Amino acid sequence: MIKDATYIANLIKNKEMSPIEALEEMQRNANENQDLNAFVELDIEKAKKELKNKKKSDIEHLPFYGVPYPLKDVGQSKKGFAQTFGSKLFEKNKANQTNDYTRKIEEAGFIPFGVTTSPEFAFKNVTDAQIYGPTLNPLDKERFSGGSSGGAASVVASGISPIAGASDGGGSIRIPASFTGLIGLKPSRGMIITGPDDYRSWQGASVNFALSISIRDTQKMLNVLKPDNQYSPYNRPNAMLPVVNRPLKIAVCFTSPVGNPVSDEAIEAVMEAAQFIEKLGHQVEMIDYPVNGDELIRSYYKMNGGETAAMFEEMEEAFNREMTIDDMELMTWTI
Questions:
Q1: Cβ atoms of 186 and 94 closer than 8 Å
Q2: What is the DSSP string of 241-305?
Q3: Closest C-alpha to 66, from 76, 79, 56, 78
Q4: Distance CA 160, CA 37 (A)
Q5: Burial of 285 (0-12, 13-18, 19+ CB in 10 A)
Q6: What is the pLDDT of residues 218-270, one digit of tens each?
Q7: Residues 87, 145, 148, 167: which is the catalytic one?
Q8: Active-site residue, from 72, 78, 124, 220
Q9: In 4, 269, 284, 293, which residue has its Cα 20 to 30 A from 160's Cα atom?
Q10: Interhelix angle for 5-13 vs 215-224, to 10°?
Q11: Active site includes 54?
């Protein structure tokens, strides 16, 4: 049986494990994997104290009651927890509010217990923020676990926790998942709750979600994190993972969107997946990449650059001074 978040929730529900014991197990796992450098902050005692202050009858019926849950250092704020964005400008910063993503996590019964590493402002696909150093891949500690949700990927892939908060604006869930063998879904914009601090990050391209080890956890998280009746600049898609009892037509592509060579190993892996899909009774159709990747990436960087410039204008107002190249890493300055 997969010992995922649902498994832990069932243990707690059946009185085979307490939430405190679950937190202490996460602490032991984290202590055994300190060399991964996956946490910005790890405070089990803070999580225990908050749990004890909650009325048990108010939370023990929740679907993920008592399951520990690490948050990402970007976009998943909890009041009093570290929120550094991987930046020396915010190295000692603590979040002054709990955002809607974290509120939803807690309303599902999860217990936030730490904050995982990210590259500066989540701009890179490698988690190596200069203020913390590199986050390592538990499958091969000579390598990185990807980014920007690299800390989350290392926490889950190492077995510290079966699920962790992650986000994706340009591959930041999917890349770490591919580097560490995890399930990394990026939901469409509008499907996941946003606000109140940010409703349309990167034109809605940046989406908070999770990295997990099971499809059932991933599917449940889509329901956990769906929007309330709240303001949002994007409509929620109608298609919400219905149960489909008919064969699907699925496109499979081996080509690179920007014309780069694709390795034989990657092609073989995709082919194995396609053959598995066919065995399930679905129709597979081979296609070339259907988008001009060069135009797409130029458009993406233009959008990202504009968003970044606007972000730093707001920061300059807050700091009451101009930002300089010495305030940030080179890639951030370039973007």
A1: no
A2: -----S--EEEEE-S-TT-----HHHHHHHHHHHHHHHHTT-EEEEE---S-HHHHHHHHHHHHH
A3: 56
A4: 12
A5: exposed
A6: 999 999 999 887 666 777 766 555 667 889 999 999 989 898 999 999 999 99
A7: 148
A8: 72
A9: 269
A10: 80
A11: no
Q: Which residue has the tokens 């065995």?
A: 279
Would you call 137 helix, strand, or coil by DSSP? Answer: strand
Using an 8 Å Cβ cutoff, are 93 and 75 in contact?
no
Catalytic residue check, 72 = yes
Distance of CA 176 to the CA centre of its chain: 9
Per DSSP, helices labelled H in the chain are 5-13, 19-32, 44-52, 56-59, 100-107, 150-157, 174-180, 215-224, 264-279, 293-319, 330-334
Check 77, 158, 161, 172 and give the catalytic one: 172
Global pTM reads 0.93
pLDDT of residue 36: 98
Q: Are 286 and 253 in contact (CB under 8 A)?
A: yes
Locate 15 and state its tokens: 């009185």
One digit per residue, the tens of pLDDT, for the chain of length 335 reads: 789 999 999 999 999 999 999 999 999 999 999 999 999 999 999 999 999 988 888 899 999 999 999 999 999 999 999 999 999 999 999 999 999 999 999 999 999 999 999 999 999 999 999 999 999 999 999 999 999 999 999 999 999 999 999 999 999 999 999 999 999 999 998 899 999 988 888 888 899 999 999 999 999 999 999 988 766 677 776 655 566 788 999 999 998 989 899 999 999 999 999 999 999 999 999 998 888 999 999 999 999 999 999 999 999 999 999 999 999 999 999 99
- In the numeric block, the tokens 């986000």 are attached to 167
If DSSP codes are grouped into helix, strand and coil, which group holds residue 70? Answer: strand
pLDDT at position 228 is 82
